[in-house]
Amino acid sequence: MARYTADHNETVNKLVLLALQWIRQTPSLADSGGALGAYRIVERSAARARWLNGVPEDKKAELLPEAWFEAWADATCSSGQKGPGLGQLMAPNGTVQDSREYWASGKPLYDSARVTVPVLIVHADLDRDCPIELSRAVFAELKSAPYRRWVEIGEGTHRFSWRTTTGRYLTRSMGSLGTSHEHEWVISAGQPSDRFGSDRNL
């Protein structure tokens, strides 16, 4: 959507970017090297471990309850992405190809300075798939956006936090985007922290 917006600002009201990709010095964690097919085979246990990469051991069960992960994996299998073996999933390689050809090669897919609509960027502090520094770099480049908001999810991964409070705060943020002063929010453990500042040119 960011690329589309940069090319067609007149058709976009507000832009929300979640755990976004940007120029990076390291390959995607999903990239094991070698030739790419349309899909790659992923073990269920490996998928869960990657989701929780970087999460302290005592927080893993809270951030991603086993039953919730299994429900997601079962739904993924039933939607046509069941792998050839027991406990295997099929994951599309499109994002891996994009990372190789663009993000990890120093070639952005869009010019963030050309985005001229209000923007909300949401990222979690424990994201290892797309490190949070990528979003910070894009936020700094949004020179033409009339309004920018940054929301950082505390104790969340690439899939954010599963807490219901996180969803409520994000809904409120998106609803008010562009309607008041620009804010930088930090959400810690699913709750807003005491740090709440504003600056139209962060």
CATH hierarchy, class of the largest domain: Alpha Beta
Radius of gyration: 18 Å
Number of helices: 7
Helical/strand content category: alpha/beta
Helix proportion: 25-40%
Strand content bin: 15-25%
**Largest sheet report:** 5 strands, mixed
Backbone shape: globular
What is the number of strand segments? 7
Low-confidence stretches: 180-202
At the fourth CATH level, what is the homologous superfamily of the largest domain? Answer: Alpha/Beta hydrolase fold, catalytic domain
Question: If you had to describe this structure to a student in words, what would you say it looks like?
Answer:
This protein is of the alpha/beta class. The protein has two domains: 2-26 and 105-198, Rossmann fold (3-Layer(aba) Sandwich), CATH 3.40.50.1820; 39-92, no CATH class. Helices cover 32% and strands 20% of the residues. The chain is built from seven helices and seven strands, in the order H-E-E-H-H-H-E-H-E-H-E-H-E-E. The chain has helices spanning 2-7, 44-51, 60-63, 66-81, 94-101, 132-141, 164-175; strands spanning 15-18, 39-43, 88-92, 119-124, 148-153, 183-188, 191-198. The strands form two sheets. It has a five-stranded mixed sheet with strand order 1-4-5-6-7, with helices on both faces. It has a two-stranded antiparallel ribbon with strand order 2-3. The two termini are 23 Å apart. The model is unreliable at 180-202 (pLDDT under 50).
